[in-house]
Amino acid sequence: MSNKTIKNIKERRSVRKYIDKNISGEILEEIIDCARLAPTGNNRQAWSFLVITDAEIKSKIASYARYGKFIEEAGACIAIFVNQNKATTPLQDASAATENIMIAAKSYDLGTCWINSYQKEHSKKIKDLVNCPQDMELMTLMSIGYYQEEDVNMPSKKNLSEVMVWDKF
């Protein structure tokens, strides 16, 4: 593979075990810059990206999110919020931005794991914890951090021939 973007997409895996290493603010800003460039319905861009590096806040988020305990060990947590009063396609908008974060992070050799947070049991607690404005909805939590390659599980994926059809089903 000579195309770096394709390589990053094909090699990306969910990471749930991180090493203790800070992520520079410059890298985090670059990753969020990629997230804000994702497509949105009617170009509403009704989102906010909260980057959390504070250990105490990450620890509380990890304790609230049943499937996100590893957030505590990650270098950062990115919370994606969408203003549901302004967005026409909030779930799709947040998903596109989340994917951009995963691909951008991989280009910096950072691992990520997507924790669905749309109307989940942990969402209200986290919104309260971070003083989220009333009109914003928590859509996604994303752990992000450095990791050791041997700690990453390589789940099997279906073959292309099992999921791709041409012209008609």
UniProtKB/TrEMBL annotation:
<keyword id="KW-0560">Oxidoreductase</keyword>
<feature type="domain" description="Nitroreductase">
    <location>
        <begin position="9"/>
        <end position="65"/>
    </location>
</feature>
<comment type="similarity">
    <text>Belongs to the nitroreductase family.</text>
</comment>
<dbReference type="InterPro" id="IPR029479">
    <property type="entry name" value="Nitroreductase"/>
</dbReference>
<feature type="domain" description="Nitroreductase">
    <location>
        <begin position="67"/>
        <end position="146"/>
    </location>
</feature>
<dbReference type="Pfam" id="PF00881">
    <property type="entry name" value="Nitroreductase"/>
</dbReference>
<protein>
    <submittedName>
        <fullName>Nitroreductase</fullName>
    </submittedName>
</protein>
<dbReference type="InterPro" id="IPR000415">
    <property type="entry name" value="Nitroreductase-like"/>
</dbReference>
<dbReference type="GO" id="GO:0016491">
    <property type="term" value="F:oxidoreductase activity"/>
</dbReference>
